[in-house]
Amino acid sequence: LEAAAGTFEPVFCHGDIQMSNLMVDASSEYAALLDWGACGWGDPAHDFAGVPLGMVPAMLEGYRTLTEPEKGLEARILYRHLHLALFLLSRPPQPGRSWAERPLGMMLELLRFLLEGPDAAWRDLAALFKPPAGPA
Predict the structure, then answer these.
(1) Cα 14–95–76 angle (5° rounding)?
(2) SS3 41
(3) Strand 40-42 to strand 11-13: parallel, antiparallel, or no bridges (unpaired)?
(4) 28: left (phi over 0), alpha (psi -120 to 50) or beta
(5) Angle 70-2-75 (CA atoms, 0-180°, nearest 5)?
(6) ∠ at Cα 49 (27, 75), nearest 5°?
(7) HSE on the CB side for 98, CA within 13 Å?
(8) How far is 88 from 110, CA to CA, in rounded Å?
(9) Most CB within 10 Å of its CB: which of 3, 22, 51, 66?
(10) What pTM did the predictor assign?
(11) Are 124 and 67 within 8 A, CB to CB?
(12) What's phi and psi for 34, nearest 5 deg?
């Protein structure tokens, strides 16, 4: 993933996007983003780490209406999710915690996403996880 990730220009990020910091209206449409206590300049990929990976393509669609992110954003998002999922696996179960803090939940979501691959760009990144072919 590192080769596909490229470089990024720091942007102003929320720093803690997760389901508990999003508000929706009665029709389930986005209404507000709360809790800006972790905001600052950084890699926009980190703002996609606290939500299930399956939601990221829809979030990116909205993100791209505001800016054209540099190449490699999807690879950096996938790298961040993989990094967090592997890190959290060392923790014991976390009942009652948010989705992003549950070790097995995050890893299962990552695996489900990689197996389903919503579009060609994500499927191409998932292909980077395949082991190289061995000797014949």
Answers:
(1) 35
(2) strand
(3) antiparallel
(4) left
(5) 50
(6) 115
(7) 11
(8) 13
(9) 51
(10) 0.81
(11) no
(12) -105, 170
- Comparing CA positions, the residue from 35, 37, 27, 126 lying closest to residue 74 is 126
Cβ neighbors of 77 (< 8 A, separation 6 or more) are: 45, 48, 49, 53, 56
pLDDT digits (tens, 9 = 90+) for 43-82: 989 888 888 888 888 888 888 887 776 788 999 999 998 8
Distance CA 36, CA 15 (A): 7
Task: Return the half-sphere exposure (C-beta side, CA atoms, 13 A cut-off) of residue 74.
Answer: 23
On whether the CB atoms of residues 113 and 82 are closer than 8 A, the answer is no
Rounded alpha-carbon distances, angstroms, from residue 19 to 29, 41, 80, 111: 13, 21, 17, 20
Question: Phi and psi dihedrals of 95, rounded to 5?
Answer: -60, 145
The token duo for 104 is: 């097995």
84-102: b or e for each residue (b if 16 or more CB lie within 10 Å)?
bbeebeeeeeeeeeeebeb
Per-residue confidence at 93, pLDDT binned at 50, 70, 90?
A: confident
